[in-house]
Amino acid sequence: MSPTFRAALWMIGSIGSFSTMAVAGRELSARFDTFEVMLYRSVIGVIIVLSLAGATGAWRQINTRNFGLQLLRNLVHFTGQNLWFLAVSLIPLAQVFALEFTSPLWVIVLSIFLLGERLTATRALAGVMGFIGILIVARPDIGNLNTGILAAAGCAVFFALTNVLTKRLTRTQGITTILFYLTTLQLLFGLIAAGYDGDIASPTAETMPFLLLVGACGLLAHYCLTNALSLAPATVVVPIDFVRLPAIAVVGMLLYAEALDIWVFVGAGIIFAGNYLNIWFETRKAHPK
After folding, report:
1. Engineered SS bond to 99: which of 113, 152, 179, 190, CB 3.0-4.6 Å?
2. Rounded to a whole number, what is the distance in angstroms from the first to the last CA of the chain?
3. What DSSP designation does 198 have?
4. What is the spatial distance between Cα 218 and Cα 21, in angstroms, rounded to a whole number?
5. DSSP one-letter code for 203
6. How many Cβ atoms from other residues are within 10 Å of residue 20's Cβ?
7. DSSP for 94-154, written as a single string
8. Residues 6 or more apart in contact with residue 225 via CB below 8 angstroms
9. CA–CA gap between residue 139 and residue 161 (Å, rounded)
10. In terms of Cα–Cα distance, which of 42, 77, 71, 90 is closest to 190?
11. Which residue windows are transmembrane per the record (predicted)?
């Protein structure tokens, strides 16, 4: 198989994992609040990461360097992930995914201030296109601007900040260390946030499969995406990732009778175009003919 075809297969795994996690999060929202979902997700994540690190010997890579940055990164990611789980419980799944696609455009803005990167005309145009796409997807007015939309838009910003901080961490830390702190610190945050009132809902035989799906699919989605990006350029991977939107729209229609809103697709298409324009330009700049 060609590298591009293998990357496409990995992206199918990523799309399936993200979609499954969204459905599982929606199913859990009736019994658990977002902090409790994150708590149990982190428990499962810790078990998976430590098991793999122990089996491969990668646990030796874990260290305490840059702990302050690890702490900040995971506070930001914990906030973003809680907003994401809140959004999937309140608004159509396609709308959540469409607004989540603005995260790479927020990275452009944040990288200017946090990584000292330059704002080019192409990046500025991509950012403007993303903002227009947000307005079309959310159509903010008194009737439409609700908690779910604000949560979905907010999670994209926090995910972007997470990506920027992760980029800084990868300069000195390996993936095992990053995943170790991702799961253990967020387990601690989840325990504090879910248990502050002394009442943490316990899993049942009915909810346990969904909790396992949330925990496993969260790690699996990013693992598949990382493998895809290692095999093919972002200009190939990102358009495949965009298939997540129609896929989750169909899932939402079949499982929850969510209407297929044409304006969500129009806005998401503009957001995607902004993302792709920036990626295409950066790729051409890095590899000129």
Report:
1. 152
2. 27
3. S
4. 7
5. P
6. 19
7. HHHHHHHTTHHHHHHHHHHHHS-----HHHHHHHHHHHHHHHHHH--STTT--HHHHHHHH
8. 10, 11, 14, 237, 241
9. 25
10. 42
11. 38-59, 71-91, 122-139, 145-166, 178-196, 208-229, 262-281
Cα separation, 175 vs 182, in Å, equals 10
CA angle at residue 92 from 86 to 97, to 5 degrees?
Answer: 75
- CA dist list (Å): 220 to 10, 19, 28, 148: 10, 12, 19, 25
**Torsion sign, CA atoms 13, 83, 76, 107:** positive
Task: Check: CB of residue 187 under 8 Å from CB of residue 39.
Answer: yes
**Structure confidence by residue, pLDDT tens digits, 178-228:** 889 999 999 999 999 999 888 899 999 999 999 999 999 988 888 888 788
Tell me the residue length of the chain: 289
Structure tokens at 22: 């969204």
241-247, Cβ contacts within 8 angstroms, sequence gap of 24 or more? 241/11, 241/14, 241/15, 242/101, 242/268, 242/272, 243/11, 243/15, 244/15, 244/18, 244/19, 244/97, 245/94, 245/97, 245/98, 245/101, 247/15, 247/19
Q: What pLDDT, in 10s, does the model give residues 27-48?
A: 999 999 999 999 999 999 999 9
Dihedral sign for Cα atoms in the order 105, 224, 42, 194: positive
CB 243 within 8 A of CB 15: yes
Burial label for 281, CB within 10 Å (0-12, 13-18, 19+), is middle
Q: Is 174 left (phi over 0), alpha (psi -120 to 50) or beta?
A: beta
Instruction: Give pTM, 2 decimals.
Output: 0.88
Amino acid at 31: R
Quick one: which of 64, 53, 82 has its CA closest to 190?
A: 82
Check if the beta carbon of residue 78 is closer than 8 Å to that of residue 159: no
Residue with tokens 């000292």: 116
